[in-house]
Write a structure and sequence with these properties.
Elements: E1 2-7, H1 20-37, E2 41-44, H2 58-65, E3 73-76, H3 79-87, E4 97-103, H4 107-125, H5 141-151, E5 163-166, H6 168-180, E6 185-189, H7 197-211, H8 218-222
Parallel strand pairs: 1-2, 1-6, 2-3, 4-5, 4-6
Helix pairs in contact: 1-2, 1-7
């Protein structure tokens, strides 16, 4: 199973001193690091005028990453998948599995991971969706159900259905179940929740050193 780096470029947080431009540059550095560490792909979301992200031109960002990388596949999170389906003459379906992730060695670190995740839901995800069904197009009604779930969610409710949180062994066990289901690649959302760049890069290192080696994939050859 392979592993990729994923981000929506969420930066709309209260009292956040990091500018949108600074965050885009951090994402660029993290994408280059992903290549050096042996990740298989880099996925960058595209967002315009909403609280989910600050990067409206992932193509330009990835173009600046390409000359600095050797192995990772660089893709915009939606367009590349749809284009591949069209070329193959197939209707787009579910592409791959994605997870938020925070590797925690103790209870204090795990609580930090939960708080960061909840901050993303409260300050970025919820404001992006209208609460009034009459103002939302039919395609957005699915998200209204998500809003109801998130509004009533507590940090203790977070589970491995959406976030890899806890010790390396706990995350390995979850990913082994994912692998057994037939998933070939998992893309990982490290920098969610206004985490500092140094912490995000530390987490990326930890994953490739402590977790990825328990799975067969090209990442082993890249790190050899």
């Amino acid at each position: 199973m392979e592993f990729g780096y994923f981000t929506l470029s969420d930066n709309h947080y209260a009292n956040n001193p990091r500018s949108a431009n600074d965050f885009v540059l951090e994402i660029r550095d993290q994408a280059v690091l992903a290549d050096k560490l042996g990740y298989h792909s880099v996925w960058v979301g595209e967002h315009h005028f909403d609280s989910l992200g600050v990067n409206s031109r992932p193509d330009l960002l990835l173009a600046s990453v390409a000359p600095l990388t050797k192995n990772v596949r660089l893709d915009k999170a939606v367009g590349a998948y749809r284009d591949a389906c069209v070329k193959a003459g197939k209707k787009p379906g579910r592409a791959m599995c994605s997870y938020f992730i925070y590797i925690a060695d103790n209870e204090k670190e795990e609580n930090y991971g939960r708080e960061a995740q909840m901050r993303y839901f409260r300050e970025c995800a919820l404001p992006a969706f209208t609460m009034k069904p009459e103002h939302a197009p039919p395609t957005m009604h699915y998200f209204l159900k998500i809003v109801n779930i998130l509004e009533n969610m507590k940090k203790e409710d977070l589970s491995d259905k959406s976030i890899l949180l806890g010790s390396p062994q706990k995350i390995i066990d979850t990913l082994k179940t994912v692998e057994a289901s037939g998933i070939e690649e998992v893309i990982l959302y490290f920098n969610v929740g206004a985490k500092p760049n140094a912490l995000v890069q530390e987490q990326m290192h930890k994953f490739m050193e402590l977790i990825a080696p328990h799975f067969e994939g090209k990442h082993k050859l890249r790190r050899a």
